[in-house]
Amino acid sequence: MHCAARQAHQFDGVFFPLTSLAFNLFAGTGYFFFSGVTNFGDWAEVIAGLQAHWLWRGLLVVAGIASYYGAVLVVGTTLVRYVGVPRNATRRLLKLTLIPYFSAVLLCAAGLVNPIGIQLVWQSALPGAAGAHSGLLWLRYYIPRGTVPERRSDGIDRNYAWIIVAVGLSLVFIFVLGRGITLHQ
User: Fold this and answer.
1) What is the pTM of this model?
2) Is the confidence at residue 10, as pLDDT, over 70?
3) Distance (Å, rounded) from C-alpha 19 to C-alpha 139?
4) How far apart are CA 24 and CA 30, in angstroms?
5) Is 14 a domain residue?
6) Is residue 183 part of a domain?
7) 184 within a domain of the structure (yes/no)
8) Which of 56, 90, 96, 167 has the most CB within a 10 Å radius?
9) Which of 73-84 are b and which e, b meaning 16 or more Cβ less than 10 Å from the residue's Cβ?
């Protein structure tokens, strides 16, 4: 296999798991912040009956900020080190993070066709997608200065077959799963 093609495939092999890691870390850590600020969601229910409720909400906010910042550092540092994008290549970093961010925002489109209505989009889908994954848009500013690539990458090969599969699965996600599935009648 040609050396540049092999490097591009290595890049693909790191970028996809890194994007998955980013989605999981940002959603998980951002949820503490979201629940603390809005007093809505699972963590708001966990602290609902506790004494000094305001203190618990404040702790959720602080834990959310701290853990989200840690997630941004992990994802940004990994992007530079193992994907091979130099820290000062801001246009390249933005290009690599915009597509995953907007694919996360695609979650909101599924909420639009949900029978519960637009309220679900405002309360859950929009904060969970646009808000929680916003770290992808600004993480390039928080990558530590000493972070350098541990390997060189020539980029990701565009594969139209995967793009077609992604569009097809997105349509199924929006128009089938977005409406909800009735398991019994």
Assistant:
1) 0.80
2) no
3) 13
4) 10
5) yes
6) no
7) no
8) 96
9) bebbbbbbbbbb
Confidence of residue 63 (pLDDT cuts 50, 70, 90): very high
Max Cα distance, the chain (Å): 64
Residue 182 lies in a domain: no
Length of the chain, in residues = 185
Residue with the two structure tokens 């000493």: 146
Q: Is 96 exposed, middle or buried (0-12, 13-18, 19+ CB in 10 A)?
A: buried
Q: Based on the number of CB atoms within 10 Å of its own CB, is 102 exposed (0-12), middle (13-18) or buried (19 or more)?
A: middle
Distance CA 170, CA 120 (A): 19
* pLDDT of 158: 80
Question: Could you tell me the two tokens for 123?
Answer: 């309360």
Q: How far apart are alpha carbons 126 and 121 in whole angstroms?
A: 6
Cα–Cα dist 178/107, whole Å: 9
Nearest to 182 by CA among 114, 112, 111, 110: 114
Instruction: Give the domain range for residue 34.
Output: 3-177
